[in-house]
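Entry 14. Structure prediction run on the chain below.
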Amino acid sequence: MIDLDYKVDFSEPIPKMIERLKHEHRDFKSKLLQIEKNSRTNSKQAIEMLADLGKSILRHAVEEEARIMRVIMQNAKDHSEQSIKVMQEHRQIIEFLDKTISQLKNFSQEESANKIKTFVEDSIKHFSEEEEIVFPLALKADSM
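Output returned:
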């Protein structure tokens, strides 16, 4: 089980937070692509890098759910269905980071690399969905 000793900053303005989260997405994408590349030649190193990055990704997901979804549910609940579906993808991300990573060392290099590749692709798609669906609604909800 991943230990998350982290407190969410509820004083950060939503627009500023969204810009920071977008920046984190770009940073995560860059690191995830590097991990995916490494996984093809050095799965042990890639698994370690992914486990380390996973802590930041989980903190990021907690912030999105605690702050972004909160403002959406308070002020734009009638328009929240797509955003909720996007946020539910955090479950798969958490499952991978919490359970699958520790099992990757039991797979062949190729199997491990394929699982990492799928995780990276799914994560990058998820970041785009948040930026296209969730964040615009949160900004709108924050200004209501």
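Helices lie at 14-39, 43-75, 81-88, 90-104, 109-142.
Filed with the rest of this week's runs.
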